[in-house]
Amino acid sequence: MNIFILIVLIAAALWTMMTRSLLRSAIGLALTSALLTVLMFRFQAPLAAVFELSVCAGLISVLFIATISLTQPLSKQEALEYMKERISRFWYLPVIVVLAGIALSLLPMKLELTMPSPEIEKDVRMVLWNLRQFDIFGQIIVILAGVFGVVILLKERQ
Amino acid sequence: MNSSLIIMPFLGVVLLNLLYKTAFKKIALGIGLALSFYQALLCVLPGYFTWANRLDVFGELFRFNLVVDPLTVVMLLCIGIVSFVTLLAGNALIEDKEQRFNFANLLLIALAGMNGIVMVQDVFSLYIFLEITAIASFVLIAFDKGIASLEGAFKYIVLSSVATVLMLSSIALFLVISGSTSFAAIAGSLKVSPDVYLAMFAIAIFLCGLFIKGGLMPFHGWLPDAYSCASGPVSILLAGIITKTVGIYTIVRIVSGVFGFGASLKQVLMLVGAFSIVLGAFAAMTQKDLKRMLAYSSISQVGYIVLGFGCGTTLGIAGAVFHIFNHAIFKSLLFVNAAAVEKQTGLKDMDNMSGLAAHMPLTGTSSIVASLSAAGIPPLAGFWSKFMIITALWMSRYYSYATIAILASVVTLGYLLTMQRKIFFGKPDASSSSVKEAAFSLSLSAVVLSAIIIGTGLFFPYILKTFIFPAAYVLGAAIGVQ
Amino acid sequence: MPNEMLQLFWTCGIFAVLIFIIGFYCLLATYNLIRALIGVELLIKAVTLLIVVAGFVSGHMALAQALVITLIVIEVVVMTVAAGVILNVYMHNKSLDVRELRNLKG
User: pTM score, two decimals?
Assistant: First the structure.
């Protein structure tokens, strides 16, 4: 079952890359995020999966679509020529991916790992708030830096 | 005391923005100056690292885990000095009040980020603070929104994200091997791990990510563009301290604290270092643009640091740490002078400038001091650190690497003196007659940095004893070197 | 470590490497700035998959989830700043072609 989802994930990523218009690429990215969310649910990571779905498949897609619509597309004629030239560069990609997949799966697996010590805290919320407080502080600073970046970059000078 | 170095810049930014009066906007630069001066002052207090760890009020309250050891003290000192100088330069070079306020805020965020990088004990937190510094520097590079700056910023964004992705995949592999993300736990499990291939693969990927961030040679693509297109004070900050903290300090800390010094790791480090030295020096000779030449020179000098560190003996590590300090000072001074020249003449191309020493005596003199220190001429500071690195290489019988280091030093002297002759000496032509000396803040920063170079060169036994050798012993003890 | 966990780790590792290859190829072969950004996004998706699998295999799922949440927050901020830079490039150049951006040589 997992293998099936993984194969569909690869197919979605390929479609994101090879499709002709930018808008479809952004939608493909959202689709890839959704498939990754399903996979994360199956690996028993519900909190991270919800985050991934709401932020990556939602917020970032909106961001991309906003950027794409603010930067106007080419005229129809130019767009058509551009697409033809793109396919000539990009058709190698599925071939490379399939070949690499087959090559890698034929490698002998030589992993010998010991089970690491069991975790102290099982709840994600407890881990975040009790063990990782410094990281939450760091995230606050990151968001502050991002806010400054957006204000500085997008403010028109009078 | 440790976490105050991160919390205070953060509170500074928050307060500056909450209180919406124009009076506060004017003192933004002043707050930055005060904080970086406080940080530099704290580091020169004797025995700072012995009592700093015990006095951490906020750390106890919130369970932060920040440790200051001698290497951290050296880095904090460099960060404080270079931030101070950058704020002085920003005072002189940025005219618009609104721009100045934004610049001060971004610099405070970058200051908090860099202080975090040098003090954490955990790979996860290291990643977060690396990203804080990276985001602040993305915005700083794109600050003046000219097309060249935007191009440099975009290249840096893409390459920095690739480096981050490599580091994160390595962190995931470490999670499988050891089950935790703190330095001590990963180091412990790497020693006893039965699986050699996965561990080596994880180490290799992590180092590749760090080489990209530090601008070492096969992965230096973003560096010349970012350094040369950023505006004056930003290139001082970027070249002086950001690349070194984000790339080189992290390599030193992770290799000595977590990975341990295997023989193949030392060979890789020395090879990458030597490669950067040679290619950086030769590329710098062919440049026409002043800042681009200084960028390639930075790549070359950072190669020295990695070469000295890869050697593995105590003398080599001490030389590398001392060279981090020296490079921060003299490269910042060279970029301060480049910013002054660019502001006063409006030119970037070295061939078009000549004979500026008659009109800008202070800039010319400090530029000579910085160039001689970079090339390693006694008794300035750069000589001692290069001497220590070359001696360490010679004593470990890496004769070819030592010869490469000496020859590259000669090449460095060559291109830096050529730059001096082209820009400052020679006959002044008609277009340079209206050039005046640089503004007061820029001259002040040039004087301060030159004084530090000369002082470090003259008093180097004291500096070695109090700062450099404790750092080398701590790092060396972690590796198990005598 | 039980063999089926190792097998799962190896399989998901291979798929993560494949997504890496797709992302890198996109980054290298595209002439459009926004598509380069989508390539970086795909790389980050691959790393997210790797971290989740690593957490599952080693049993430390809480730590891995905390790492993934932090990664997502930071990724959003980086994408926002990059989008800001792209909008400024567009306002200057009126096009998003990388080939028109190559003014810096050497």
Answer: 0.92
